[in-house]
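Entry under discussion copied across for reference:
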Amino acid sequence: MKKKKICIVTGTRAEYGLLYWLMKEMDADPKIELQILATGMHLSPEFGSTYMEIEKDGFTINRKIEMLLSADSPSSISKSTGMGLIGFADAYNALDPDMVVVLGDRFEVFAASFPALVACIPIVHIHGGEITQGAYDESIRHAVTKMAYLHFTATESYQKRVVQLGEAPERVYNVGGMGVDAISKTNLLKKKKLERELGFRFGARNLMVTFHPVTLENRKSETQFNELLTVLESLDDTRIIFTSPNADTDGRVIKNMIDDFCENHSDKAVAFISMGRVNYLSSLQFVDAVVGNSSSGLAEVPSFNIGTINIGDRQKGRLRANSVIDCECNQESIRNAIIKLYSRTFQERLKSVKNPYGEGRASERILKILRNIDLPEKPKKVFYDL
């Protein structure tokens, strides 16, 4: 029996963490030939060369698609996307996959999707239908939805939005969040072992900080992040773990500011280019909140019954649990959010938080559908009118 050749694209450490269990289950399935294309930040020494983590996990990378230029200006992001278009076109021609699986909304995902569309390879899109009004990822996500043939969403409301975009309901499946799935399946490290791995000791109070550029607010990333750093500097008895921003416009500005902060406050702050999926999830057991504007703060963190301080508009519109504290990107608002985080009322609320992105098993649901579905050689679509 001919195996289905399923090609998974990954361009960032966070995205790989979400795809890991789906890849693992595909790799073990006798009906599937797993193909892996690594691109973007995975191949960059500046971002930790995280393709090596994929290989360390036992996977074979079929092609490495070099596309990330050593700059973070708007023009360099566009040029990187152009390089990716060429690289993915060549890879698909060589590997001849039966379908291409992409997740999310980054420019690497767009670069991977358009050549597959032109080559008439069915695209499977995970985590479509979501809204993030503060980043151009919003437009990329919906553009990929229109190029994709099959859709796996994280919630019912996102499923409805994909249908609203004109996709036929029978091709849109609500499977739950991939991040929740990863949490439920990962063997998390105990505190002492994790501290040895990180070279970091947790204190009485601990915060994880992940702040990405706000790509639709012209050159405001430096100003906004400085507001956050000023508040963090003033906190007593609080230890801070920073994770690096993505390779977006102005990403290097934020990274340099993190490095400077940690150099000047080495007694309480540490930064990681890439923590690795196990260390990151394990750390969430021992921090009081994730602070910043990362999607992880909304999609995964509530499963640990800890707080999220969501700053600014980058994640505006995304579904959230009542463990999320939204605040403006100024010192007063951030400081008030931290006060609320440690209040007795809010801490009591955290005990009963339910994650709106489900309770796991997303990868199993996706695999079952992909294993059994017959996708057309020429994936023609008719716009579904409501």
